Please model this.
Amino acid sequence: MTVDTSNGAVPAGSSPRSGTDPAASAPQLVQLLTPEGERVEHPDYPLEVSAEEVRAIYRDLVLVRRIDTEAIALQRQGELALWASLLGQEAAQIGSGRALEPRDMAFPTYREHGVAWVRGVDPVTLMRMWRGVNMGGWDPAEHNFHLYTIVIGNQTLHAVGYAMGVQRDGNVGDADGEAVIAYFGDGASSQGDVSEAFNFAAVYNAPVVFFCQNNQWAISEPTERQTRTPLYHRAAGFGFPGVRVDGNDVFACMAVTRAALRAAREGQGPMLIEAFTYRMGAHTTNDDPTRYRLAADVETWKLRDPIERVKAYLARNQLADQAFFTEVDDEAGELAARIRREVRAMPEPAPETIFEHVYAEPHALIEAERAEFAAYHASFDAEEAGR
Amino acid sequence: MTVDTSNGAVPAGSSPRSGTDPAASAPQLVQLLTPEGERVEHPDYPLEVSAEEVRAIYRDLVLVRRIDTEAIALQRQGELALWASLLGQEAAQIGSGRALEPRDMAFPTYREHGVAWVRGVDPVTLMRMWRGVNMGGWDPAEHNFHLYTIVIGNQTLHAVGYAMGVQRDGNVGDADGEAVIAYFGDGASSQGDVSEAFNFAAVYNAPVVFFCQNNQWAISEPTERQTRTPLYHRAAGFGFPGVRVDGNDVFACMAVTRAALRAAREGQGPMLIEAFTYRMGAHTTNDDPTRYRLAADVETWKLRDPIERVKAYLARNQLADQAFFTEVDDEAGELAARIRREVRAMPEPAPETIFEHVYAEPHALIEAERAEFAAYHASFDAEEAGR
Amino acid sequence: MTTLTLGKAMNAGLRAAMENDPKVVIMGEDVGRLGGVFRITDGLQKDFGEDRVIDTPLAESGIVGTAIGLALRGYRPVVEIQFDGFVFPAFDQIVSQLAKMHMRSQGLVRLPVVIRIPYGGGIGAVEHHSESPEALFTHVAGLRVVSCANPLDAYVMIQQAIASDDPVIFFEPKRRYYEKADIDTEGAVAAAPPLHTTRVARPGTDATVLAYGSMVKTALQAAEAAAEDGRDVEVLDLRTLSPLDVETISASVNRTGRCVIAHEAPVFGGIGGEIAARITEACFYRLEAPVLRVGGYATPYPPARIEEHYLPDLDRICDAVDRTFAY
Amino acid sequence: MTTLTLGKAMNAGLRAAMENDPKVVIMGEDVGRLGGVFRITDGLQKDFGEDRVIDTPLAESGIVGTAIGLALRGYRPVVEIQFDGFVFPAFDQIVSQLAKMHMRSQGLVRLPVVIRIPYGGGIGAVEHHSESPEALFTHVAGLRVVSCANPLDAYVMIQQAIASDDPVIFFEPKRRYYEKADIDTEGAVAAAPPLHTTRVARPGTDATVLAYGSMVKTALQAAEAAAEDGRDVEVLDLRTLSPLDVETISASVNRTGRCVIAHEAPVFGGIGGEIAARITEACFYRLEAPVLRVGGYATPYPPARIEEHYLPDLDRICDAVDRTFAY
Ligand SMILES: Cc1ncc(C[n+]2csc(CCOP(=O)(O)OP(=O)(O)O)c2C)c(N)n1
Ligand SMILES: Cc1ncc(C[n+]2csc(CCOP(=O)(O)OP(=O)(O)O)c2C)c(N)n1
Ligand SMILES: [Mg+2]
Ligand SMILES: [Mg+2]
Model:
């Protein structure tokens, strides 16, 4: 059962407010690929990217969007309990995710399905928690991709602590070093934990990159309810560099994240990246954004679509033909079909899993309650059988 | 009974580290009175101060230092349970405190005895909590001086909330407006609450001044364990101005705080003032700073004494004669004697006060426990009487 | 008489409180234009303005900390915590400041702050959205803790909580937000019992079941089921968790001699233990069986697909009642 | 055999753990050069370096949050919270992350983090320095909670807690830091019972007094006093609060038929209620009187000059034992 919290209409007479105007802060934005698919250069972030890599990127972008669409459909059909859509944030996630080396560790929020994809977490595995089958459960060490964290901001401190461990392991100092990335949102920037994470990272010069996807909304609250200043400014106040990047530009996200990770692994300490993007969908499948924002804003941002510009770039430079695009679309369709099939076929968790993995070591009370639970259900079963 | 946690010597072979070198950041420091007592001008902070006012300031400085000395003595004699010395921070406190209008509200930490003095809280009233008689207990509304807050950083949010109330009361917008000041330390700057306070204040443009006394120590930890950047930089990251002032210069502290309060009351929002000073004494009477810092550092800071420079200024400009200085010293002696007398004569709290003021309204459990307590003690008394 | 869901009754209660006292302000995440994720504050910002219905930054410590500041300035803030699992960033401000400032000031400072927490499971949610942390607040002196179980109490109790000069933690059984009842909003507050009283939700003679919030409905269902088996079970809707209405509770148990306590929170360390200990003291000679507790297990709240096995249901309550008869 | 105070035994235990496992790191405020305000980590930074004994920024959530990160990287952090009242800024990280990550990961992620909390009153301190918040942790599934009462247990239990693959909240009775005992540091760990066992501190036949941490000494004094009145009181040092060693406890109460629980924390909502409820269930037919509780009152911890009236002392424990004989 799921509570539907989205059944209200916009109250009469209200005028939903729009988010921050991105144009206002455009000058500081690092951009390598325009919405029209034109490649532009940035002095600080040179990027060489092969045709093959661009095609791979395009494929990632399309596939993760397809995963997202499918998940929303599955939620509507009651197969998932909830889903937090990444629509509009594909470039920020694929760009930053692809900047990671396999040895780097990533700490996501609950919306980083694109990063999960890049890190090799199967979408069906990911959807178990959204179906209510478990609460995570992929092996963070296998993928160097931590579990989703729902309590806003908590994971940024885990990332810093992990990075402190990397330092203690002596794995910082040159290009072979390890780096850590912490994802969080514009809303999360308000949490004390995130500021503490900034500060611990700065004080210890920890090899961590803070990657903020400013999608301009924290549920119904626009960015100006969270901050008076562009979020990337926050970093300087704690003593490390911050930069704002066009979050819908996969090249820029990749180049800037790569540079930040490199600095971190070499021992230059933390950096904050604000990926300026837009949450195109609802906050989650429970949310009804028509209550608080204008459809027109969303339309504006459609023109800045992160996938279209890569497609235009590929087409414009003849790096891919229609066959390629069709092939990717087909693959997306197959992926969606597999997800649909496998999610529907997902085995129900056994009731007794309630008692599993609460502790790593034996625990008297858990054992007692597990036994009571079993006895109670056995007595029921016996009763039923006796009828 | 008090646990003595100060009985260890510096471990052999260790070399206590010193705090941040203030000289390094001297250029940004607002100073109006040099350690030698010379008046200097600062373009942003003009200050007119009459001879009478300087003498009153001098008197405040001397008296609060005397209060402090007396409190330490009383603690040594077992009359107080604990004391947190303000030694070295008199200028920061008297300067900022005197910048407040009576209608402004102040939120202190546990070390703002100088501000308390300016706000008219009697030192004996203040010492009740340090004696263990109560936990505060002056009327914040009477003095516009909130109770001491011991949990680091908590009060900064109370100040912002209060300032939000001032806004809602419509008391911001011109020179007659109200402003709020929040005191905190260098260590406190690391707490999530303080960053959240910065952010709420910025987002709501609340009329609040954040006054950080950077005394370079949080118990045994020097400022570089708390921050990688000068603390006043923090403000810009949240979108409001920050300034560093010579915290041992009472004129500068007064002028800068006055300007910040004016901006706040006029509706320009928050400002952060970092008063760069030094904790000359132990953290509290329980602490033994020889374990972690060099006596030489303290010596350096003695040359920057906040009182000596005002005395020199008064003498140099013939604004006060020896009779005045003697008079102030005598007054200090009398004040100390009164404190000593009244602290020693302070009535013991009745045991039943345990149950008082837990709630504002009647509470069944408190009443039940109060009755049990009374009955239990009555039975004891009866037993004793029967013997 | 108006038919209202529990959620809409909350909304009506908040609206009434705001109309009656201009010092009442609402604060929280998404409480403004959105009206909260459960729409409990729906329409209030539109009618009372952004100064009185405040969309805050996403920082619970900040919300409660500034609410305390507003209260110091004479306001009566009502804070919405979005979900039970998100109250913990504010725990320090609640425990160290909100609960203690009145005593610290020897009664000179009052903090009439209400913290509303939609709590409990059964809504098929992801982690942190189904918890029952009430016992973590009942152990904190200086707080008052209550929970409503039906639309009428939602409407009345929120107004009483806001009127209280002490801080009140107000637990709302989120899975009952859509339960309906007819309410006479006009006379309700005047006719209501005081906030800290326990109500006999169903009189009975053979055993007492104590419940609050979401469990009251379940306990009443269990009582119905027991009635079919010929057992007359009394159900008490506790309403107040701190302080407890020990008088009403022990009066009932002294009559019935048997008692079962049900809550969604883990049994271990839950408020049920406190109640059981107190009842046992108060009714020692009358108890035919130990007070039994039915609740969550000593585990984190489980994933949605198995939550029904975690949550106390009518069978588990009936089973416990049966067991009290086996002594 | 070495004579050690409880505080120095803690220090020796930490040192041994650090020597035995290079992954053990210590984190907290002032734990480095100062050795902590109680000197529990005295000398450890000097001997193990700044990478293993970490003076952190003043931010408890940050400390616990980064400790979790270090644990994810394979370290075994031991966090010092300076005083009981300062654990609350870290409560969110403890409850939402530290306690739940193992289950969230289906056992793939282990968090061997120890959080040391010097707790309790009787030291003449100012506010927030004398609290007993242990019940707020025992109600949180996923945590283990223990408390030591003497130098030997301090030395052994801290090592066992560090060796545990689960998070452990470790309550140290700060007013007993200066109590001394002779310890055989060589053989102690090998000879010790497991972490989660309750110890009979004094055998007796007439009534059982349960205590932990600072109250064990007081309970033993009460037992001596009762002995003078001809009553043979058994004292159990609980040592483990979550999970409880229910077997040992109920074995004792089944023998004596009377039970008193003492803790400094407020009785209302304290762990005593949970224990009382459980014992009553386990020993219903054997109990001659209800389980009685002696503890703090339902108030904030009072100012130092009256704390002796708040803290359970030997008279109040004896009085409760007497009352169990009045039933
Ligand atoms: C501590 C906490 N408070 C509240 C919530 C409820 N909540 C879930 S997502 C969200 C908004 C997050 O906004 P943002 O950080 O911008 O991330 P986005 O959802 O836009 O990706 C809120 C308030 C939560 N998960 N955790
Ligand atoms: C939340 C919290 N953690 C720890 C402490 C213990 N403590 C008291 S004062 C102090 C250092 C404070 O340093 P700073 O903010 O610089 O203020 P100062 O004492 O130098 O005035 C610490 C750690 C506390 N009071 N509150
Ligand atoms: Mg967002
Ligand atoms: Mg300091």
User: Anything to note?
Assistant: Chain C touches chain B through 48 residues (CB under 8 Å). The longest helix of chain C spans residues 6-20. DSSP finds 13 helices and 14 strands in chain C. The pocket of thiamine diphosphate (ligand 2) is lined by residues B 109, 111, 150-152, 185-188, 215, 217-219, 279, 283; D 29, 58, 60, 82, 86, 89 (CB under 6 Å).
